Amino acid sequence: MHFASDNWAGAHGAISERLSAAAAHHGPAYGASDLDKAVTGRFRQIFKRDDVAVYFVGTGTAANALAMTTAARPGGVAFCHREAHMIADECGAPEYFSGGARLCPVDGPLGRMDPEELAKAIARYPADFVHAGQPMAISLTQATEIGTVYSLDDIRAISAVAGAHGLPLHMDGARFGNALAALDCTPADMTWKSGVDLLSFGGTKNGCWCAEALVVFEPDRWPQLPFIHKRAAQLFSKSRFVAAQFDAYLEADLWLGLARHANAMAGALADAFRKAPTTKLAWEPAANEVFAVIDAATAGKLTDAGATFHPWSWPHGAGHDTDDSETLYRFVASFATTEDDISRLKALI
Amino acid sequence: MHFASDNWAGAHGAISERLSAAAAHHGPAYGASDLDKAVTGRFRQIFKRDDVAVYFVGTGTAANALAMTTAARPGGVAFCHREAHMIADECGAPEYFSGGARLCPVDGPLGRMDPEELAKAIARYPADFVHAGQPMAISLTQATEIGTVYSLDDIRAISAVAGAHGLPLHMDGARFGNALAALDCTPADMTWKSGVDLLSFGGTKNGCWCAEALVVFEPDRWPQLPFIHKRAAQLFSKSRFVAAQFDAYLEADLWLGLARHANAMAGALADAFRKAPTTKLAWEPAANEVFAVIDAATAGKLTDAGATFHPWSWPHGAGHDTDDSETLYRFVASFATTEDDISRLKALI
Amino acid sequence: MHFASDNWAGAHGAISERLSAAAAHHGPAYGASDLDKAVTGRFRQIFKRDDVAVYFVGTGTAANALAMTTAARPGGVAFCHREAHMIADECGAPEYFSGGARLCPVDGPLGRMDPEELAKAIARYPADFVHAGQPMAISLTQATEIGTVYSLDDIRAISAVAGAHGLPLHMDGARFGNALAALDCTPADMTWKSGVDLLSFGGTKNGCWCAEALVVFEPDRWPQLPFIHKRAAQLFSKSRFVAAQFDAYLEADLWLGLARHANAMAGALADAFRKAPTTKLAWEPAANEVFAVIDAATAGKLTDAGATFHPWSWPHGAGHDTDDSETLYRFVASFATTEDDISRLKALI
Amino acid sequence: MHFASDNWAGAHGAISERLSAAAAHHGPAYGASDLDKAVTGRFRQIFKRDDVAVYFVGTGTAANALAMTTAARPGGVAFCHREAHMIADECGAPEYFSGGARLCPVDGPLGRMDPEELAKAIARYPADFVHAGQPMAISLTQATEIGTVYSLDDIRAISAVAGAHGLPLHMDGARFGNALAALDCTPADMTWKSGVDLLSFGGTKNGCWCAEALVVFEPDRWPQLPFIHKRAAQLFSKSRFVAAQFDAYLEADLWLGLARHANAMAGALADAFRKAPTTKLAWEPAANEVFAVIDAATAGKLTDAGATFHPWSWPHGAGHDTDDSETLYRFVASFATTEDDISRLKALI
Known about the structure:
Four copies of one chain form a homotetramer.
Chain A: H1 13-23, H2 34-47, E1 52-57, H3 60-71, E2 76-81, H4 85-88, H5 93-97, E3 102-106, H6 115-123, E4 134-141, H7 152-164, E5 169-173, H8 176-183, H9 187-190, E6 198-202, E7 212-217, H10 225-231, H11 240-250, H12 254-275, E8 279-281, E9 289-294, H13 296-304, E10 310-312, E11 328-332, H14 339-348
């Protein structure tokens, strides 16, 4: 019963096998292999356009930090939700890599930036007013850190603000597959057709062991990216081993199947929490993360039974302050979560 | 006949299998798993001391860049050989990560810094003279970029200079195993017993697909390293998959066996070049890289036969300038090089 | 009637004369002159301790940015009031100079951080939790950006929080003289005796034309500062011309006299706004800045009469939101403000 | 007899007076005053073109560092002479401000880069080869660090290399006036008409106390410079006091008169060293710095008589190594050097 995080899971068998198969052969280094190129082709197919560039990186933090570096301007400020991974969990990597850009927290309910709050935050940096600095990018997290998703309309509302200020729009898609499965739309719809310019595309949490990419639409706009990527120590010599993972991941919609499974398991979890007398859902989940209020006795029982999961801070604006007596917990389902895991948990609460 | 680079090879079967085995299980993320801890234990055993910290990273460039960041001072200057990987092949990553440190090239024959040249270079930065900046570290590459190695005495001569100036000594050990096999000494002898403080320990070129580490002796001296590591986007969520590779790599001296094999193959290659009428060795190799002068016809014949290898710039001070008529080529042997590869090449020259 | 800013004023005659006198002589460069040393002596006298180091810089932004650089840690976060100059008006200089440190806004009434809010903000960065980053410093602005001051008890409450977390305390004293005049205490009381470690000491706004300094107590704690200072391009070759200004400024308490005058003029201004039927004070001023609500007709009359002053955003938490019908204006008095200026303004409102 | 440096001199009377005059008045801050604008107009007149932008900074190091930051690219390398101030005397400021750019030393006789050596150095960074990094700028120092100057043909030879590689050309003109007086050409000829894009224009060493500027031709090419400037803490609030200095400096060719005087004094010094039996010129000076070989007895006699001057390292390639028995000394003349100083020195040697 592992619900601590989707990054506690191993790797899916098909991905693991493809990796092993690649291990048996020689191939050009630094992204020049046929497998590397084939995977770029897969991304182009998936996103339904030819001008897509793909930069493999080792962590989601790296993808985000490189996106911010790509968009950086002197005195630059990027806008993202107050609970965004970039703000809360990356040890200042985006600020560091970008040479000191600022991440400005924007509020909004349930992990999603409110477009009006976003516009107000940007308005504090008037054009050409050097004292304040200048806006440089907007970043949204899809799925969000608290298991919700932006609808296509939500994304377009954010991208309208970006467009009005001439700002590139970045999507942190560490759980891109889960969000896509939740929206049941195309990858193109959820990204460039809705105004996304730069995408952190995550495979690690959804069945790969280490496969993340910075995906860039209209790469001619960012000609420095090959150097930004290499300078950041993210150009793997045996790049084709990341490619091998993505190759299996993206083949025959494996990734979507894994994401749908994880979401379904999360849905079942949510159902359990909703119905149990000792627990309640903190809010409705949309992807593969479930947040629930659980009393101490029940939480202890779960832990004793070997379940892993984390207590969580109440998000800003959720109507709970820090000394609240209700304790929030996060449960994450993954490709490796089984129906048996859910049944056992259900039986305990 | 792949001699282009040791990073064109795949991964060793035992390492690949360990990775697949790890894929089947859940485990704590971010380096907290039992496997992560066990691997740190293996490093402690290998280096024969308890106060060793190990930070997994994705590339050798990352290991080097983090070492420089750890040693960084304002206006800091690190000294390394003119042909060092940090200077020639990392797109400025050490300078970038360290916030602008300078890499000062030091000359010396056959890829090794001359201790007197090193001392002279340091002398250009007198203590407390703020205008020049200040020395911050010395870095040596073992094995060197041109396939030679520092003897233990050589290392100690460099470390004496470091000690005289109170500077930490870093070793870029992207080919640590090959150097160790060449010297036939203990890892402790080649590192901390000879004055090395910070070590980039490479596994990728010697049979892993992605396993590099920054190894630190006396970690109490560098208390900020956990943050330096995370901020650099190098803390893998599924860290235990790097651990799995190292676990197999370090078990029962697999790594040394692989390195010895690669060196032996390089030795056989060197022998072939030494004896063939159409080729000559540029200098005697010590590890797994061989540099040879080959005439155009022979080089073409090799290429036609499917051999991969790269032309190379004559190193500074080798008595050849850029418009020299003699073309230098690099041949790299790896764990995956076979005796058959050597025989076929021999037959062609 | 110049009330736009204290940095619109010229320079005090005594300071200007001292500068001219220095112009007639040769002297060692880069801070080595007798005048440079004498001024450091003056600072030691004023702060009543011997271990004080003084680094001249060109702008208050430079002083603040160097203080943050001195305190920087990897993934570091500094805490300051939401309206702090570092956050609002320095184009990201502190983030840039420090290699990507984050400035975390802290709320509190009337421009002063609330110690409890501060403690809560710090608590979001638990010790040794690498994902979040780590606290590195606290910075308070004295006098604040909105013309109030921290009492000695206020400072000590902040410094208690700093002490509890082992964080250095920085004071942005761009208007140090005005704050000191307001509190009527000693410089030592307002700084190191109340826990301040690093001080941005401003002379420019109070009668110098360009004289700012980073003042450091217990300089042995920050041995890298000479290099940090030089690397930041802030070591003036003709440093003694900054020294000359400070020499006159600090002599015979000239600086305190100028600050008291500016504060008195601000007091008279406040009195005028308080009593006039068309205006009202936004809050009680303590130093040399006055914030008032003025109706459009009166504001226009003032502008027509040649008065300079700026509209201002309502500070966070002041109970006004952006589309408020009440317009806030800032009026700043300086050493050069005259009683005649006040009378003329009084007559107009 | 002050020959230690031109930055040991005070300030010229006319400049000092203009500064005092400005002190008596209020004026808009941050470069918005009429005086600031008038000075930009003066620069445009002097350089005979309208599209010139001028950014005042506090030190020559700041001007150079901002130029490098403006030209920076990821993994960027700037090429300058091995003895350039940026390499030898700025504590790594250009590397720091630019986010880790590298300064690549280029050799050439008498302080001037050899265009062929320059081209060879650039060739080590082939286009689109991410491993090496990429060229980003060329910088030449005019007058050079050792008192020579590039002729117009010399500058054009360098700028031809810059043009061939699409690189911006920066001129470090800390002693711009002295070089101009030596060449007796127009400022336009020595800069943009010969291919210079970015200019560090120094006034401090030639009679101002603190007046340096980054002068930019075709400012539309560098739209981020206002933010680069502010973020670097170089936007002075009382900017008009720098403007006041430049206003007097540039009026009626005062600056050229001062430079000609300094050069003439250096010429007289050189003549003295050339003729005296105990001294010899190291090489022919062109601007205001003179380098001479002096025996220990004579050097002691000069010091005893109160002369200030510095021993100097033999420049690379001058045919002297460090343990040479001939000691090199630098003597710098300035606007404040008098004929009496020269006569007294002459009498002593």
